[in-house]
Design goal:
By secondary structure, this protein is α+β, with helices and mostly antiparallel strands. It contains 15 helices and 37 strands. Helix 9 packs across helix 14. The longest helix has 17 residues. About 2% of the residues have low confidence.
Length: 621
């Protein structure tokens, strides 16, 4: 065994809270390393490659790229900052030797930074702290540096890990300086050279066995119409060549022989074909169609398995089903149970923190994820691919400990809210079994509160809090663990306005419904019996006739009934809000063209029968 260091390569991941600028920093690193031509048009946030990432301004899927600096190849992994996509973070950290921890020069280390940083520290990774947005008027880099050190200590960093270097950056202008050495950050003649120097000199060099049997850990998968399944991972030992015979070592220990067809390494944003890859390289390979994330590709002459990747289990689940509304089949391309099942199980190939199981009936499936956003992103992705289906209310996943006690997941909730809205937020969290653990009054009139809340209590909380605080609340959550089941949580104190007949919504009927609550739909919108058209002002549901028209007379014409000028503004419900809003007896109908809320049982007599049965069961109990 010949253990050696590779001086020509560094493998790093960039981790940060949402919107702290890590993807923008990667853009600047790519541009200054001459990845793009001088006349090439480059989009902002080039690493956020799909529409959902650009629209939401967050990174969802981890991505690989590389830059060259003074003869050293720097492999960069851009990781998600949202805790719901922690499965992405956990597996890509297996590929790197160090991390860039990016923090905002005003906000400092934020809640979701804790999750990713804790994982990196547990895996022994060393970090460079990058204080970004140093040009902001209220920037306070010294305070941020102290707060970051406190966070390292709190998360159990070793002495070596806590002795981290600091660099100040302005990612938008591509500027980096070493504090107390290079002077203030300025865009005049300033570049990212200090950051590149730190990466080369501080991030550990890959320590590898170049002469040992080949071992490659698969950490992510991609697909190409011509090349088939592409496995992406890091070579931990030995080397691989094109057309080499290898063995796939599965998670259960089973072996399957195969052959590598094409080898790729990353150069900028492109994959470049090569004939050989060495230990320490981050590579992509083809030729083995059945590979799964966490498996090992090993030398066929001496196959040795690497430790498999373990990610935290899902905490929330939803039921996906075939669309059964009267509008089924009118707006989507794929809607059968076979197509829906095929798509959901295909998601498991690349989404390691998600689980899919067959439901109680042949046309339903139970999908489990790390949080509401994790599942909503899947729903939105499928909708844009042409699928139509319906989903039920999110539910938390309970566990039983060795004593048989039922446990439920708890979240550490971080809330920032103006002082005038502090009371309503505290009241809502109190009714949701939240326990306050910390409160800090800031000089700017903002109150920062930390709560321990059952995940059940946070389902639907975001929309209610945004409404109560006029959109000023800022919330972040972090899975804290499992605790014994808390008391009953009432999540919705208002019922729904439910359409009682099929047809087109009319202004006159909507006006009557609006007097009893808040509307979700506008005039001339097609509706069906059992469709939710608004929120009732009282706790119970109310059937309304939104298709009702005025009686025609000599001075009134039917066209006036469609006049929307007399209707107040409706409440536009996004997919996220619909999923948070629905009650146990409601579903969200999702199609490529529309998102509707509906009752599980569309007919009034069926709903009345079910309500009566539930009431009788409660009386008997």
């Amino acid at each position: 065994m010949a253990i050696t260091e590779r001086n020509d390569i560094r493998n790093i991941a960039i981790i940060a809270h949402v919107d702290h600028g890590k993807t923008t920093l990667v853009d600047a690193m790519l541009k200054q390393s001459r990845v793009f031509r001088d006349n090439q048009v480059v989009a902002e946030r080039v690493m956020d490659s799909n529409d959902l990432e650009r629209e939401r301004g967050i990174t969802i899927m981890a991505k690989n790229t590389s830059v060259s600096y003074e003869g050293v190849k720097i492999n960069i992994v851009d990781t998600p900052g949202h805790a719901d996509f922690g499965g992405e973070v956990e597996r890509v950290l297996n590929m790197v030797d160090g991390v860039l921890l990016l923090v905002d020069a005003v906000d400092g280390p934020m809640p979701q930074t804790r999750f990713v940083l804790r994982k990196a520290l547990e895996m022994g990774r060393r970090a460079i702290v990058v204080i970004n947005k140093i040009d902001r008027p209220n920037s306070r880099p010294d305070w941020v540096a102290n707060a970051t050190f406190d966070l390292f200590v709190e998360l159990g960093a070793t002495d070596d890990q806590a002795d981290f270097p600091i660099v100040h950056t302005n990612a938008l202008t591509g500027c980096a300086v070493i504090p107390h050495k290079d002077g203030p950050a300025s865009s005049d003649g300033c570049d990212l050279k200090p950051l590149f120097d730190l990466i080369v000199n501080f991030i550990p060099k890959p320590i590898v066995d170049l002469d040992g049997p080949g071992q490659l850990l698969v950490t992510s998968l991609a697909y190409d119409d011509y090349k088939g399944r592409i496995a992406i991972g890091r070579v931990f030992a030995g080397s691989f060549t094109r057309n080499q015979e290898v063995v796939r070592i599965m998670a259960n220990g089973g072996h399957q022989k195969g052959r590598l067809a094409i080898l790729f390494t990353h150069q900028g944003l492109a994959r470049i074909e090569v004939t050989e890859v060495l230990a320490g390289d981050i590579v992509a390979v083809t030729g083995m169609p059945d590979l799964q994330i966490g498996e090992t590709i090993a030398d066929a002459r001496d196959p040795r398995a690497l430790p498999t990747i373990h990610v935290e289990e899902p905490t929330v689940r939803m039921t996906f089903g075939v669309n059964t509304s009267p509008f089924a089949g009118k707006e989507g391309t794929w809607g059968t149970s076979r197509k829906l099942r095929e798509r959901l199980f295909k998601e498991l190939e690349t989404n390691v923190s998600m689980r899919v199981e067959d439901g109680e009936t042949a046309d339903t499936f139970v999908v489990s994820g790390r949080g509401e956003l994790h599942l909503v992103i899947l729903i939105e992705t499928m909708r844009r691919e042409g699928y139509e289906f319906q989903v039920g209310k999110p539910e938390v996943i309970f566990r039983d400990n060795e004593k048989g006690t039922t446990l439920e997941p708890y979240e550490q909730l971080f809330v920032e809210v103006p002082e005038e809205y502090q009371g309503p937020v505290m009241e809502m969290l109190g009714t949701r079994q939240g326990q306050m653990t910390d409160m800090v009054h800031g000089d700017n009139g903002i109150v920062s509160m930390t709560y321990m809340v059952p995940t059940r209590g946070l389902l639907g909380f975001r929309s209610a809090a945004l409404t109560a605080t006029r959109g000023t609340v800022v919330m972040n959550t972090l899975l804290a663990g499992y605790e014994p089941l808390s008391g009953e949580i009432r999540q919705r104190d208002r019922g729904s306005l439910v359409a009682w007949e099929d047809g087109d919504a009319i202004t006159y009927g909507l006006r009557n419904a609006w007097e009893r609550g808040t509307l979700f739909i506008e005039s001339a919108r097609p509706v069906y019996e059992g469709m939710v058209v608004g929120e009732h002002a009282r706790p119970d549901d109310l059937d309304v006739n939104v298709c009702k028209m005025k009686m025609l007379s000599a001075v009134r014409t039917r066209s006036s009934d469609h006049d929307t000028s007399r209707l107040p503004p409706i409440r536009q419900m996004s997919l996220d809000e619909c999923v948070e809003y629905i009650a146990d007896d409601e579903l969200v109908e999702v199609t490529p063209l529309n998102i509707r809320i509906r009752k599980k049982y569309l007919k009034r007599d069926e709903r009345a029968r079910m309500t009566s049965a539930r009431s009788k069961a409660l009386r008997d109990a």
